[in-house]
Amino acid sequence: MTVEELKKTACDAIDAHREDIIALGERIAAEPELGFKEVRTAAKIQAVLDSLNLPHEDQVAITGIVAPLKGRRSKLNVAILGELDAVVVPGHPKADPVTGAAHCCGHHAQSAAVAGVAYALATTDLMRHLDGDITLMFVPAEEGVELEYRRGLIDAGKLSMLGGKPEFIVRGVFDDVDMMLMQHTDCTENGDRACKATGGGTRGALGVIAKTVRYIGKEAHGARPYEGINALNAAELGLMGIHAQRETFRDEDNIRIHPIITKGGDLVNVVPADVRIETYVRGSSNEAIADASEKVNRALRAGAMAVGARCEITEMPICMSLVESEELKDVAYDNLRYVFGEERCARNGEGVCSETSDVSNLMPTIQMMIGGASGKLHGDDFRIADPDLAYIGAAKALVCTAIDLLANGAEKGQNVKDRFHAPLTREAYLRDWCKLPERV
Ligand SMILES: [Zn+2]
Ligand SMILES: [Zn+2]
After folding, report:
1. DSSP-assigned states of every residue in 291-316
2. Comparing C-alpha atoms, which of 332, 43, 363, 342 is closest to residue 176?
3. Mean pLDDT across the chain, nearest whole number?
4. Mapping DSSP to helix (H, G, I), strand (E, B) and coil, where does residue 83 land?
5. How far apart are CA 132 and CA 3, in angstroms?
6. What is the pLDDT of residues 71-111, one digit of tens each?
7. Residue 261 alpha carbon to ligand 2 centre in Å
8. 403: CA distance to ligand 2 center in Å?
9. Does the domain formed by 3-202+322-431 have CATH 3.40.630.10?
10. pLDDT tens-digit profile of 313-341?
11. Which ligand is nearest to the CA of 107?
12. Domain locations in the chain?
């Protein structure tokens, strides 16, 4: 079969299972679960894979699922990812009444689309025409939330990272993967937006280091402050010190630092001795984040030094900044146009902050943005308004891109792999990034 025939076969199979794919997405949306707790979500997907007789490994990083499919040759292995977790938006009409969890980031549509790829590959003989393997992955915990809970899982030895994809990297799930494909649902159905799908981009896909900061002073009577050490004064000086760094940040690095005081003292007539701050340091390159992060630490410590307090800073890795493979983006863009038509697509668009970017530092990675939702991401008005875009079109874009990469001796995939120069090795990632969380 020609590549065109392979793609048509895949798209026809997805159309034939349109109702199944949409129904799976809606079943997931009806029972939203937060990261590393997606037990019922995983069970729904496992049931679909079982119905297709697709072997899969379950409970990977607690709730993840990995389903490998072999091609006629195994020149390359392309991973296609979906995410399992919801966010907390209690005001959403489909929010869980107990946890407030709701699928306001569209991960239910994303997982259903990857299940759509499973329908395409398991109900046809497509894999027998491809010169590489495809591994479907349903990954837990994309959203960087409930950090206390996840720190508890780390302390209990059940995890070593705070997010699903970093945990997959640490566990070696990506070790035999050559490149990764994803798409994220986008809110294109507000008004008359012509562009429905893009290849994503670095804009909006900033890397993040989170910090928790504790200033330790000395209690004393509010009327005798000379007997104490005021930790709130130390914290205020620390925050002013951070603001004094801002003119040193380059525009192109998009550094964003937005601290909050989570505890300002205990009682008004006692000199504050325990003051806490949380902040993110975001930026569009890993080097710029590291530079800004060190300046923030210096400023925070200076506040403590000024008044004789102590300052404890704990850093946690949330996600790295996105690295793009132009060659992979070209292939994905070709297939977005194939599925949606030239006038509805753009090669470049806005990205999202995600630990998908961690993977992008190790191998060619794309996160396309595909429409079909209305409202706002993480908003109480988020909903799938056009299921044929968000579920069906997304599934087709993913599978057609994979076919393009792996047909004809996996020539295009090999070109993508050869032209990509990964900023990090897995070893460097584990050594430099995963050493966090740590006290600095
Ligand atoms: Zn999100
Ligand atoms: Zn998301």
Report:
1. HHHHHHHHHHHHHHHHHT-EEEEEEE
2. 363
3. 95
4. strand
5. 14
6. 999 999 999 999 999 999 999 999 999 999 999 999 999 99
7. 27
8. 25
9. yes
10. 998 888 999 999 999 999 999 999 999 99
11. 2
12. 3-202+322-431, 207-318
- Long-range contacts formed by 262-266: CB under 8 A, 24+ apart: 264/232, 264/235, 265/231, 265/232
309 half-sphere exposure, CB direction, 13 A CA radius: 33
Task: Give whole-number Cα distances, 289 to 255, 277, 286, 299, 431, in Å.
Answer: 7, 19, 5, 15, 17
Ligand nearest to the CA of 145: 1
User: Using one digit for the tens of pLDDT, what is the confidence trace for 163-182?
Assistant: 999 999 999 999 999 999 99
142 CA to middle of ligand 1, Å?
7
Which numbered ligand comes closest to the C-alpha of 186? Answer: 2
Distance separating alpha carbons of residues 161 and 205, to the nearest angstrom: 20
Query: 207-318 has which fold?
Result: Alpha-Beta Plaits (3.30.70)
118 C-alpha to center of ligand 1: Å? 24
The pLDDT assigned to 147 comes to: 80
Report, in angstroms and rounded to the nearest whole number, the Rg of the chain calculated over CA atoms: 23
Report the separation in Å between the CA atom of 255 and the middle of ligand 1, taken as the mean of its atom positions.
20
Q: Ligand 1 mean position to 185 CA, how many Å?
A: 10
pLDDT at 40: 98
Nearest ligand to the CA atom of 108: 2
